[in-house]
Amino acid sequence: MKLDQQEREAVLRALSVLPHDHPARIAFDQGADPIALMHLLEGDETVENLKEIWLAAYERRCLSGCASRDEHKRRP
Description:
This protein is mostly helical. It has one domain (about 5-75). It has 4 helices and no strands.
């Protein structure tokens, strides 16, 4: 899933606790999404933060899509 600027900044904040040469930071810089990064991280707070960011982004897209479909259905 492509992240918007706000979501991308949230991921960067979550990854900021990692060293600059950490594989997860490098992968994100190369375009990996938050879910793809999880296998590069140990079970810690960073994984939970990435899950929350991804789920919030997914939910916004779902709600946005539902609103668009509902509006389209109301048009004659």
